[in-house]
Design goal:
Number of helices: 9
Number of strands: 0
Largest sheet: none
Helix content: over 70%
Number of domains: 2
Oligomer: single chain
Order of helices and strands: HHHHHHHHH
Shape: elongated
Structural class: mainly alpha
Amino acid sequence: MSVAGELLLSGRELLQKWGRFTLFTARLLAVSPRALGRFRLVVAQVYNAGALSLVIIMLSGLFVGMVLGLQGYDLLRRFGSTEALGTAAALGLLRELGPVVTALLFAGRAGTALASEIGLMSATDQLSAMEMMAVDPVRRVCAPRFIGGVIAMPLLAAIFSTIGIFGAQLVGVTLMGVDSGQFWSQMRGSVELADVVEGIIKSIAFGFACSAIAVYEGYHAVPTAEGVGRATTRTVVTSSVAVLALDYTLTAMLL
């Protein structure tokens, strides 16, 4: 087969997969309101996707904030504006680093867990058994996990940004000698509600994308050990690319 033919075949397969994903997401959104009625199941999925990811989110937020404090202080020192370190750290975390890094960590930890769990249920014929009993597996299995991921993602991003600001303050004030009053006063005077809203919008969009991709890959995984492993890998790769592409798109729109 020629190179042009291979490219045409790959493009066709990509369009087919995008169409299947779109239809699956539409079905997922259609059954989500009914899935909200199973409150305990949704809460359990928020715990699985959110609470179990807290350790890696908090540790990563602390070290990202500390690095941001070091790099920000070095950059601002050259311009004689070290008192603006709090503003730089807060805006960087709230608008960009908080939602993006949290989404990447979420895809690597919670997204893979969702995909492998649903894929394993498919491999062990649990989803087929639900269909035999007239139970919709998308509504019973996929929708609560999708909703849990969408709810957990903004909460994790808020925790990441909060811990990150503390890490920047720890380095800037304690180690570099930036005045604590200037650090916090500059931050309060410069950070606006729109900056916080931008971070919230991004985190919700990232949570939607990562959760939808994870449950789609798990639900359509080939029912073998190798198939589940490939679905888990595709979840991380696709979610990471989707997060970065969405970040650029949303940043361009919101600016």
